[in-house]
Write a structure and sequence with these properties.
By secondary structure, the protein is an alpha+beta fold. It has helices at about 20-25, 50-70, 75-100, 105-125, 130-140, 145, 150-165, 175-200, 210-215, 235-245, 250-270, 275-280, 290-320, 330-345, 350, 355-370, 460-475, 490-495, 495-505, 510, 525-535, 540-560, 565-580, 595-600, 605-620, 630-640, 645-655, 660-675, and strands at about 200-205, 215-220, 220-225, 375-380, 390-400, 400-410, 420-425, 430, 435, 440-445. The strands form three sheets. A five-stranded mixed beta sheet has the order 4-5-6-10-7. The protein is globular and about 75 Å long.
């Protein structure tokens, strides 16, 4: 299938290719006489009770594979068996993880939740199975057998052993029991902290001035404040929300203290200097010292730009007739937005008619065809395969290799659906003679088509779509022998590189001009609109980056060696060192930092991934964003390996040099400073 980018819009603007039509028309119809094939074509999942059956089958298969791993002589088959064991459980757990948040039917969600708990319990038990671990030790301790293994097999064996070691299985019985108890306790603390971090704070309504009470939720005599209201034009609303929403909760402070202490104790118990040292093993950064060097150097290089940004904010604040001339933490988002509006007046509604969802999907189709020889094919789903009739199914097809995998596009808003942009692995690639094709779900929250009006996207929605499609193509184009390390199953500070790289394509006029046409008139998107949008994104971008540096530094210090002082005292110090706006007394922002659970000691990853993506864009795609030569190198060096290769080696292969921390920092600074042709 050749890209028809130039011919595409010589047709009537109301006719679409199969891919465009799949997204720009209202929902598909099913033949109700069809047999229900079950969610994702899994026959057992034609009803909620099927989760119990799928779980039972997975556990039976796991039991057989555990026996095989423990009784078979050490060799490549040991790693194959571990990989099959991981896959048998992940196939059910990953699917259930998705269904528990996405299915509109509560019965399905509850059944999926129960399955997640059950499979999770089994995984915890397997991580402390001494005989299972011993079979891997026998392999890794046998130099003669190790010499016969290829590098991928050896790396996967080491990764499985790492999973065992962080559970403390190599310790004596007493210490192992302690490690198990700490892991169990941490699960409870994670749940408590995440739940608490989302709860609103309440205050007597008499405390607030009467003229701003209506801005918040009122419950009797109490005002509920569930967010920062950072975009409110009313300074008093922003200040009140900040001080009340971030007011310290004593029990949650204790929960966080306990969570950090448990993590540190567990890390030292299994042989690491700190939790950060344990978390960073196998990443691009490798050590906490490298991360802090990166954050400090970036702060130094940005200091002049950051100071200018805060000065601009101060000037803008003067124009608002404020009573407090100093820029405060509750002002940052509002003032930077106000400056962008004053300088560029970007109105998303001017852009959205040019970005119908169907046109954007055709644009992605053309881009991937030119770069990678890959195209989308709209598939007709079978009865029962989807959880909602507005979901679209795409086959991802290579021009010579055939079908690579499937993407289920859950793009439209609906009640009780998460509002975040998310990428879910449902089934990942495994090669045990026959490839098991990857299946992913991309979830967005876009406006659905209405009547003759297709789904129209704002520029930020387009960027989100390209970002999530970057994750999907990472999953599709990974071709590892082992599912344990395929696609996005790689180090956290590398996993965001393919998705962030796609944001650069989404901001390049040469790419946008291939598909961005007014859905009614066919008029192309004017180039000056794209230029203004790109320039507007750089307004206050140094201060925005500095805020992310502060969060990353705070995360590192929390997970480093014990400080023997409160998390609030650490916050105050890190804010002074790494942000530039003052700490506000009687606030505890760390209690709203929910990323501490899922990204403990790894919050820096987004900044480092962006640095790598920036370097790849400038060196490989800036000159020609459609280069097939560079697209093939990108697939070969970065997308194909998943976690089977050291991340820094993948970057080295793509850039054909070994980047330093200074290179990463310079790439980020260049992004913020340079008005690069055709690029953000």
């Amino acid at each position: 299938v050749l890209c028809r980018s130039h011919a595409l819009y010589r047709r009537s603007v109301n006719t679409w290719s199969a891919v465009g039509a799949a997204f720009n028309v209202q929902h598909q119809r099913f033949e109700h006489l069809q047999k229900n094939v079950g969610l994702f074509g899994v026959p057992e999942l034609s009803g909620p009770a099927g989760f119990q059956m799928a779980q039972h089958q997975a556990l039976r298969e796991a039991e057989f594979l555990v026996h095989k791993a423990c009784t078979h002589p050490p060799g490549a088959v040991t790693v194959e068996t571990f990989d099959q064991l991981s896959d048998s459980l992940c196939r059910v757990a990953d699917l259930a993880d998705f269904i528990k948040v996405a299915h509109p039917d509560a019965a399905f969600r509850e059944a999926a939740e129960r399955t997640c708990v059950e499979i999770g319990t089994v995984v915890e038990i397997l991580n402390t199975n001494v005989d299972l671990c011993q079979s891997l030790k026998n392999l890794l301790g046998n130099e003669a057998v190790l010499a016969t293994l290829d590098s991928d097999t050896r790396r996967v064996a080491e990764l499985f052993m790492f999973d065992f070691e962080i559970s403390g299985i190599h310790l004596d019985y007493s210490k192992r029991s302690k490690a198990v108890a700490l892991n169990v306790k941490l699960l409870d603390l994670y749940h408590e902290f995440l739940s608490g971090s989302q709860l609103p704070n309440a205050i007597d309504k008499q405390v607030l001035p009467e003229h701003i009470r209506h801005c918040f939720s009122i419950d009797g005599n109490r005002v509920q404040i569930g967010g920062l209201h950072a975009d409110s034009p009313n300074e008093l609303v922003r200040e009140a929300a900040y001080k009340i929403f971030l007011y310290p909760n004593t029990s949650l402070l204790l929960c966080l203290d306990e969570l950090l202490a448990c993590r540190h104790e567990l890390a030292t118990l299994v042989g690491y200097e700190s939790f950060a040292h344990r978390a960073l093993k196998g990443t691009m950064a490798k050590t906490p010292e490298t991360v802090m060097k990166f954050l400090k150097l970036l702060t130094e290089k940005l200091s002049d730009r950051t100071s200018k940004d805060f000065k601009m904010m101060k000037e803008m604040k003067k124009k608002t007739h404020t009573t407090n001339p100093e820029v405060m933490p509750w002002d940052h988002a509002y003032l930077s937005s106000a400056i962008r509006t004053e300088m560029f007046n970007i109105d998303p509604s001017i852009y959205s008619p040019y970005f119908s969802l169907g046109a954007c999907m055709e644009g992605l189709n053309c881009l991937f065809t030119q770069l990678l020889g890959v195209y989308f094919q709209a598939e007709q789903p079978k009865m029962g395969e989807l959880w909602s009739e507005d979901v679209r199914k795409l086959a991802v097809v290579h021009e010579t290799e055939g079908v690579l995998g499937y993407i289920y596009c859950d793009f439209f808003r609906r009640p009780d659906k998460p509002h975040q942009a998310l990428h879910f692995l449902i089934c990942v690639l495994r090669d045990d003679g026959v490839y098991q094709l990857p299946v992913v779900v991309l979830m967005l929250s876009l406006p659905p088509p209405s009547g003759r009006t297709p789904s129209l996207l704002t520029p930020s929605m387009v960027e989100n779509l390209f970002h999530e499609m970057g994750h999907a193509m990472h999953s599709m184009l990974g071709r590892t022998h082992y599912q344990h390390v395929t696609g996005t199953r790689c180090s956290t500070d590398f996993a965001e590189v393919p998705s962030i790289l796609m944001e650069y394509f989404a901001s390049d006029y040469r790419v946008l001009s291939q598909f961005a046409r007014h859905y009614q008139t066919g008029e192309p998107l004017p180039e000056n609109l794209v230029s203004r949008l790109c320039e507007s994104k750089r307004v206050c971008s140094a201060a925005d980056t500095q805020l992310q540096i502060f969060y990353a530094a705070l995360d590192q210090v929390y997970h480093g060696k014990p400080q023997y002082r409160s998390t609030t005292d650490i916050l105050r110090e890190m804010q002074e060192k790494f942000y530039g706006l003052p700490y506000v007394n009687d606030t505890a922002w760390q209690l709203r930092f929910s990323h501490l659970v899922g990204y403990g000691a790894k919050y820096y990853s987004y900044l480092m991934s962006r640095a790598v993506a920036s370097m790849v864009w400038r060196q490989c795609f800036l000159q020609d964003p459609f280069s097939r030569v560079m697209g093939e190198r990108y697939r070969r060096e970065m997308l194909a390996h998943g976690g089977s290769k050291e991340p820094v080696l993948m970057v080295q292969g793509m850039l054909q040099k070994t980047p330093t921390i200074e290179d990463f920092v310079d790439a980020l600074v260049l992004d913020l400073n340079a008005n690069v042709k055709s690029s953000v």
